[in-house]
Design brief:
The chain contains 13 helices and no strands. Helix 2 runs antiparallel to helix 3, helix 8 runs parallel beside helix 10 and helix 9 runs antiparallel to helix 10.
């Protein structure tokens, strides 16, 4: 009886593979969450120089925690039937916990530390406990139990850092350790300590998971548009600010084009035809993580330049304005390799150009710096179009 109830939770062959309205509803929280991260990073870059690096590192850690929540939820709704009441409740609970994390972001390393860390731990440990009980008697219970064990280990530094090290560098070190444990576990597919046992391979619904990844990329672009629009609406509408707004929108549109062109379109087929679909999906995860992180950085750069398009450009501003597009191109290169088993030279050349020009950008106005990645992305988009017209349609050739 327990086994039949557990089996009912899993996705069935032939079940609709499109993302559900519940999953799209869940994504709304992350529009807000990513906006909070970009706002915090913008504040970090306007802080005193000696604390910029520390504050930026803290913001990156918070972003990684939020992304871990989204990606694990995407895998849960890929493995299990999201229309089942038990899974719906899990998604709602994760949504609430993610909202608490987002609200706590501004003071996550201060007075809201326990709220942020506690919500993060509650999401992962709570989900694990529910699945272990719900899957009783089914072979999938072991996968849920191993995953729960990994998150149980990382919960210790999360909670110890929040409870016992207020306003201390030790909190950052403990949380960094915790996030390393979480990402290491996900990267190696949560293995056990038994040497004879291999990491647990999860069944993959190619169309669903790839659709969720593409939707999250659109969510990140939505956050970018929200930040750009809100910043511009509060400006004086001077010529420099109008120009910065137009360049920001062009950059957003170019990233969408570069992402979707071929690799984004063919991701479902690539996963479906891969020798080990779970490994290809796993390779797509860090690719999207880097692209989303890059978009968050780009949003910060857009906000800073729309507010201050002229004058001196601080080196930290250059790093975020050019570093965001470089992260995006790096993630896009990994994504392309996952789908086609190769990387177009334009991605590498674009990232190299951004790195090469960065030292001299401190001598130019912020608007000029913002224009450089737009030009680089435009060149890549043109290169993609020319390549597609000269060659026959390319089918995915995943390396895994």
């Amino acid at each position: 009886m327990a086994t039949s109830r557990a089996t009912a939770l899993l996705r069935k062959p032939g079940q609709p593979q499109q993302a559900t309205f519940l999953e799209l509803f869940f994504d709304l929280v992350f529009v807000f969450a990513l906006t909070r991260v970009s706002q915090r990073l913008a504040e970090d870059l306007t802080a005193q120089r000696q604390i910029v690096l520390t504050e930026t590192g803290q913001t990156l850690l918070l972003l990684l925690a939020l992304l871990m929540v989204w990606f694990t939820t995407a895998w849960v709704t890929d493995l299990f039937d999201p229309d089942r009441p038990e899974i719906e409740l899990l998604v709602f609970a994760t949504m609430l916990g993610s909202l608490v994390m987002a609200v706590a972001i501004p003071e996550a390393f201060g007075t809201s530390a326990l709220a942020f860390a506690g919500a993060y731990v509650a999401i992962h440990v709570g989900r694990g406990l529910v699945l272990v009980v719900a899957l009783r008697g089914h072979e999938a219970q072991r996968r849920a139990a191993v995953t729960l064990a990994w998150y149980g280990v990382s919960a210790v530094p999360w909670l110890v850092g929040a409870l016992f090290f207020p306003e201390s560098p030790a909190r950052g070190a403990l949380w960094a350790l915790a996030i390393v444990i979480d990402y290491a576990g996900a990267t190696v597919r949560f293995p056990t300590l038994r040497r004879a046992e291999r990491p647990i391979e999860a069944p993959i619904v190619a169309e669903h998971l790839s659709e969720r990844y593409r939707q999250f990329f659109i969510v990140a672009l939505g956050e970018l548009i929200l930040v750009t629009g809100a910043t511009f609406s509060g400006s004086a509408f001077e010529i420099g600010q109008i120009a910065a707004f137009v360049v920001s929108f062009a950059t957003t549109a170019l990233m969408w084009r570069i992402y979707i062109h071929k690799a984004g379109e063919l991701l479902p087929l690539a996963i479906a035809t891969a020798r080990v679909p779970s490994r290809l999906a796993g390779l797509s995860t860090p690719a999207h993580l880097l692209m989303v992180a890059g978009i968050v950085a780009i949003a910060v750069g857009d906000e800073l330049v729309i507010e201050h398009p002229t004058g001196h450009t601080d080196s930290a501003w250059v790093a975020v304005i050019l570093g965001g597009p470089a992260l995006f191109l790096t993630g896009r290169a990994i994504f392309e390799y996952a789908v086609f088993g190769r990387v177009s030279p334009s991605r590498t050349i674009g990232a190299v150009v951004l790195a090469a020009v960065s030292p001299v950008m401190v001598f130019t106005p912020p608007l000029v710096v913002l224009s450089v990645p737009a030009l680089v992305l435009a060149a890549i988009a043109v290169s993609d179009t020319v390549r597609a017209r000269r060659r026959p349609p390319e089918m995915p050739t995943p390396p895994l």
